[in-house]
Every structure is written in C-alpha cells, then in structure tokens.
Write a structure and sequence with these properties.
Chain A is an alpha/beta fold and 110 residues long. In chain A, 41% of the residues lie in helices and 18% in strands. Chain A is globular, with a radius of gyration of 12 Å. Chain B starts with 10 loop residues before the first strand and ends in a 15-residue tail after the last strand. Chain B has one domain: 2-Layer Sandwich (Heat Shock Protein 90). In chain B, strand 4 and strand 5 form a beta hairpin. Classes of the chains: A alpha/beta (110), B alpha+beta (160).
Amino acid sequence: MKLQEVAERLKLEFLVAAAPEVDVKGGYVSDLLSDVLAHAEPGELWLTHQRHLNIVAVAKLRELSGIVCVRGIRPGPEVIQKAKEEQVNLLVSQDNAFQTAGRLHRLLFP
Amino acid sequence: MSTTTPIPPRHREIFSVVGLDLEHAGTVSTEVQRILRRMGVEPEVVRRAGIVCFEGEMNIVLYTPGGRIILLVYDDRLELIFSDQGPGIPDVELAKQPGYSTAPDWARELGFGSGMGLPNMEANSDKLEIRSRPGEGTVIRAVIRRGKDETAGGSGATKA
C-alpha cells in the first residue's frame, strides 16, 4: 500500500512528503538505532520515539519507507530539514506506538 | 592463504569524523552509500556497507575525540577502514558480545549503545579485523565482497 494511503487511513501527518507514493511493505517499532539497522527490512515504516537527526540517516541507510514519530512527538526543524535533504518521508502520529502499530498492521495485513 | 592481487582500488576516499559531533554523525555513511550507488555497486553491497559504516562512524563519534574513515572500492570488494585516537577497547572479544556496551546514559537515551554495533558490523562484513590498544586507539578493517548474486539482476561478477 502506498504511504499516502497509509497516512490518510491512519491519520498520520506528513512533515516531509519526500516520496508519498512509496510502497509500505510493513512496519518496525524500535527506539534502538542499531536494532533498526539490523532487523528492519527495506520498505518498512519505522515507528519511533526518537526525534534527533540520526534517525534520518538510519531510515536512509536502511531504505525504509518512512519514519513515524509517535505520540505526537514532533522533531525539530533541523530534523525536518535533514529529512528533506535526504529525501526521507517523515510523519507524525498522534496515537502512541502500540496503537499506531496495531492500526498499521490491521491495514497492511488484514 | 587468499592473497589478494595488488590491484589499486578503483576509488579511494578519506573522511574525517569529529568526536561527539552528533549533529553530523551519519553523514559519512550516507555519503559512502551515495558514492557507491553512483559507481553502480550492487544494491545489497551498498546496503551492507551503509550499515557497517554507520556503526563504525557512531563508535568514533560516541567514544573518541575523532578519527577517520577510509573507503576503498575494488572490483571484487569494498574495504572500510576506521581509525581513531580514542581510549581503545581493552577486551575486543567482550566488546563483540551482543548487548555489551560501555555507552553513557545520554547516548543510550538517544537509542545508541544497545551493544549491537560491533555485531552489526560483523554480520554485514565478510571479514572484520579489530586492532586496539588501550590508551592509543582502535583500527577496524571491514571487507565486504562484491559480486554476490543475492539480488536479481546483479552485476554477474564472478570470482576466478
């Protein structure tokens, strides 16, 4: 399913819509960067509480379909700028990680 | 054993890494991926190199006053060499254990220091050599072989 549609269905807000047409292959929930690098699969949507600059590099390196900052935690302008530069989709969910992941899972794997 | 022929690298690049500069941490890794993609290196190899580079870069940033990363691109392999003037690793075997970490709390709160750095580097390299002397620094050499037919439509390069 395209990220654009996922965002609409889950009411995620785009902070950076670098490639909203990308296919979301699944999801991954983690706040440990090395864990994401080791175990997230390319194309997955990453749900995290982290909101510092390095999340952009991790998403880029792992070729994830985007980053979703959960529980309404918004990253600062420098992170948004970095995501734009690196062409990484960046979104915010008002729901917490459990709720967001649950809805995403139901949507992708009904 | 498997002595490599003394062919010069097709591409060589040196990056300096500033210690504790979290703002720029990760930039070398993304740049390395960019260079490799531009050179037409196999996607799976680019992916692995990005992970190895990020973990090595983060170790320099988090634990040392600074260091450098050298990228060497050969026809049959990539090499990433990380060197720093940090405190060194007293027990390399222990440091390689998954979950072992000496990261300070501030780094852990940012999602670093989960003790997966060196294991990730090992998992994504075909060869990983760590030389370290406490008080002097650390040199890590990662070799990633190219031409593996892991992705469909790979380069088809084969080893002799």
